[in-house]
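To assess whether ligand presence alters the predicted conformation, the chain was also submitted together with magnesium ion. Input:
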Amino acid sequence: MVNKIIMHLDMDSFFAACEIKENPKLRGLPVVIGADPKNGTGRGVVSTSSYEARKYGIHSAMPISKAYRLNPRAIFLPVNFRLYDEVSSRIMKILRNYSSKFQQISIDEAYLDITDKANDFDGAALLATEIKKEIMEKEGLTCSIGISANKLVAKIASDFKKPDGLAIIKEDEIHQFLNPLNVRKLYGVGPKTEQRLKELGINTIGELASCSREKLIDTFGVYGLYLSMSASGIGDDFVAEGYGRLSIGREMTFEQDIDDFKLLDNEIDWIAEEICNELNEEKLLFKTVSIKIRLHDFTTFTRAKTIEFSSSNAKLISNTAKGLIKEFEGNRIRLIGVRVSNLEDFSWQKTIGEFVVA
Ligand code: TTP
Ligand code: MG
């Protein structure tokens, strides 16, 4: 078996960092992104918080009212998903340039198989430094990177020295690295499993690794086998080529609500061109076109249509989108968005790019 070098990259306090980049006055302050705290009576949760806010005990998924109690003077901001989505797209584009074996996992994290790009772990460290530098120069944001022989260990490693961290765990260091960590660090181990393991006298990954595999299978079924293998540092090292980009899209909010659908059509043509350029650049084809439309009263609708073949044709995107917005004619429109999804890698596909919807 060829040993691989797998990188996991995760942006630091991503939503908060994007807001701070937009408004540098917030730098160094406790910033909390999430629901409106409404002076401590608000419902909803924290999406994320800056590392300064984390010092007060504020963290993701915590009720916003609790975050407010922990620090009423923190800066509370609503979620501006559109901003984060745009920044994320640009970062993922940077990453894809480093390896075609790229897999986006969430809005702010991705795996890269860099086996062919770096001769060894020292080479991998140089590459990681280069990636961190490029993201800082282009986006003004820090990230944390973990590198190891598989995805499981790389992910745990990226979390190890956050923020702005780089942790490299060579194959012969995996056990030493994992053993002292809490079992919760293993992907898929939540509070329930943690509790059951505790009852078996297991707190650390090392203790889990030395527990008999039969006993774990007896207790947890097949999941016990997964636990045993993960604790021993055995994990998936497959990063699919070209896989991971889920969708490409653009949205446009109008300064004034518009009811002239000809204007809307022009907007759609423009967005379709933009999407098409990005598809070509990344050698991708789409199968599904969706629209998002927000009316003057803020009600928002989405519609989608899947075609029978993959394409990268701009006219097909715009014609499909125009068909989908027809039912909203007669309304005043605040926002229009077009997105393509169901993406496929173009390099091994024959394009039917000339096709145009009648
Ligand atoms: P994470 O990478 O888990 O968190 P983070 O980037 O904010 O901080 P860290 O430095 O620890 O990586 O999640 C990425 C984004 O996803 C995060 O900025 C906000 C969003 N998110 C939620 O909206 N709710 C959640 O419960 C979590 C965990 C994340
Ligand atoms: Mg993150």
